[in-house]
Amino acid sequence: MKKLVTAALLAITIQADAQTPTWSDDVACIVFSHCATCHHDGGPGHFNLMSYADAYWWRNEMRDATQARFMPPWPPDPGYRSMAHERVLTQDEIDIIAAWVDGGAPEGNSSNAPAPPVFETEWEIPAPDVSAIMPDYVIPSSTADNYRCFVLPINNPSDRYITGLEVVPGNTEMVHHVLVFQDATGGAAALDAQDIEPGYESFGGIGVDDAKLIGVWAPGASAYFTPPGMGIKLLANADIVIQVHYPASSTSELDSTRINLRLAPPGFQRELALDPILDHVVNITDGPLIIAPNVVDTFHAEYTTPIPATITAVAPHSHLLGKRMRAWAVKPGGEVVPIVDILRWDFRWQGLYSFRHPIFLPQGTTLYCETIYDNTEDNPFNPNSPPEYVWLGEATTNEMMLYYFMWTYGLQGDEEIVVDDSPHMAHHLDCEVDFTIGVDEGTVAPRMSVAPNPARDRFLVTLSGERAWLRLIDAQGRATMVRYTAGTRIDLDASSLARGVYTLEALYPGGALERARIVLE
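Now predict its structure.
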């Protein structure tokens, strides 16, 4: 049996001769959909990918970065939990880019290429209801980190609900992270008035006890949008206050960071809160957070919910020594709920990650987290050489362990709310890639059917033939299930698998291959 399984796997992975993909027919659609959003003039990418000439010049970098799954930047592991609006290439898209580069990167018929995307604004909320910008601030050169707060008055005479929040850093090289608060007390404005420079200095928070955190931004983060019917309450006459962290620098720089808000029309909204439910002080179980030199160390925290709660998003946060950050929940009956797993932590790419459907946690559910830190010479981001003791603190060279959760009071049925059910990010101009890697066109059988899809614990597969080897592949290209079947209808148990997007392959005698995409939620 082992030899049969090995032979089947080899047969699935053997690549038959096929025509090389071209830029115009195959690669341009992938690049314009998944890469150009950052790689264009004015975007955060360091080079453009807006034409065949651009892509040809950077072809080797594109192949290597996508093969390593370093690009597009998406830290959460889709195989642990598939998130809303995730920036993930399919294995076919990765393989097509590699085949194109390795085949000489031909352009093909240029008239077949989709028109390049047009980026009229860098804002993700192009027409915000509120757009407030801090005064121009010259960041002084300093050997110490600079935490500065800026008050952004807004005209909001009545209570409203925020359904979209975007931070637009004015200096992407110098803004390390931004905490967004609302202050209805006037305390932050009073502190600002006491400082002759724009803003005022404050370490830790903004110096106002009753101010409420409403947003978090760090490099790599996108705008946050709340689920339908939910919002973050914006109090009447409140000021928006941002605490901006500028790391130490040998040069002076200018910053003018902006906040964009989308507000719900008047009417009922369920109120969301953003809190560091799992943290490095209150509920750490093996603290204090002190990391010795030349070790890889692991810390944990846990919190049991005193009320039913529904979580809509999660934002892990650590600094330069972070290696892996993972969170999960265990419901009172023992059900384990994957929340987020960042296998390769990179402090440059952080964000608030929304779930495809809100997650309902009954009263008595326990949230857990596990964070691994690498304080060795092998960590390329280690700020100390040789490594030194690193302890808890807000400076870039200190460390933190925070898991922010966007949450509200939980109601049965919340998990039926749809935030994003798309198995894959929509393509630019609805362009399609029909190129198939690994099989001749004549050997590809009609696509199998899978129901239900999305599925929870089980799904039924209907094949076009009676004998086939089945292989279920996760988003990282790993085979999570291999099975031989002698029938056309197969009931598969997926209860032990992580939530996410999978590819199901069926290999028939003679080499015919079927593929289907499955979403487990």
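The CA atoms of residues 1 and 7 lie 10 Å apart.
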